[in-house]
Amino acid sequence: MSGPVPIVDVGGLMSEDVNTRRAAARHLGHACETIGFLVLVNHGVEERVRSEMRQTALAFFDQPDAEKRLYVSQNGGYRGYTPLATEALAKTLDLETAADLFEAFTMGRPNVPDDAYHAVHADDFFAPNIWPDSVTGMKEAWIAYYDAVTALAGRLMRGFALDLDLDEDFFDDKIDKPISNLRAINYPAQVKPPKANQIRCGEHTDYGSLTLVYPDDAPGGLQVLDKSGKWADVPYVPGSFVMNIGDLLAEWTNDKWVSTLHRVVNPPRETAATAQRLSIAFFHQPNYDAMIECLPSCVGANSPAKYEPVMSGEHLHRKVTAQAAA
Fold first, then answer.
1. Where are the alpha helices (DSSP H) in 165-298?
2. Distances from the Cα of 108 to the Cαs of 27, 147, 309, in angstroms?
3. What does pTM read for this prediction?
4. Which among 30, 260, 281, 294 is least surrounded, fewest beta carbons within 10 Å?
């Protein structure tokens, strides 16, 4: 294929044969080292689960603005509805830019375990979810999807361990109480031209271990910054997921793997008035109290650890705080 983002078949990760799993893991690892982005096929998430998630998300965003605003979080937690043009992700890079042209709805883990880790900054990551009464089946569809992509993320993390010369179960006890978020992101059709330097989602990196995006093929899509410094389109493959590495995993690997800048661009003006786009993003984040320190296979005499150990939740809190202050 042309372009820097490879298409990777990850069906081998579900094999009972360890050599088959290792072969699939090597394809993953190569992409994580070179670009940090890949398109996953044969991933094991059922079409019905993906379809019901998408349908309920669209039904929510199709409601009047006043109805959607009933589900804005009142306690500052990362839950519920985010109105259009209230975030500007490029500001996390100290770039002056207009607000991003998206609205969103976010959920966290469906159930908080009794032994969930809590700290001074932890409350927002364990906040209860907000469920609209106005969309039939939304809660059930979102929980089913959350569970399915959490399982996929677990398979990917096991594959990562194999490729990083770790025990296959190395990450298991670090992701068994994850604080991952699921976010449906709606990029409305642009009837009016955007402001100068205003796009659907400004350039940024993600914060956690990995992100799984279920995209659509509407105009105005995801781009990554390649090694030459040029923006490249991420290919659309029906039924696939786009996966990218986040800052936490890049630091965990001592920068052996890369967390790459990406953005979502505007559609061409000739199609903008009808070019609504929906992306469903799952931001995988290890347990709040998982200790993140450079992996033993990623440090050595010629590659000393670049990062001090930090708890997963504290790492995320710092990133989110920096974003809020930008």
1. 247-252
2. 30, 11, 25
3. 0.93
4. 30
